[in-house]
Amino acid sequence: MPKISVEMPGELLADLDEHVGDDGKFVNRSDAIRASVRKTLDVLDKIDARHGRLEREQSDEVAEE
Hints:
Elements: H1 10-17, H2 29-50, H3 56-64
Helix pairs in contact: 2-3
């Protein structure tokens, strides 16, 4: 799995950290960021599908959800 480096404001990182750890929803920051990216891409795919900007096969997958 490729590694990347991301810069973000401290307040955003602090907010992210509230959701990470034993009492959080994610086991670590990487898990939280991957989940956020997946969710964002899903939302963008749905928007693109509504505007006819996806190939037909991808539009069908989004419509099934």
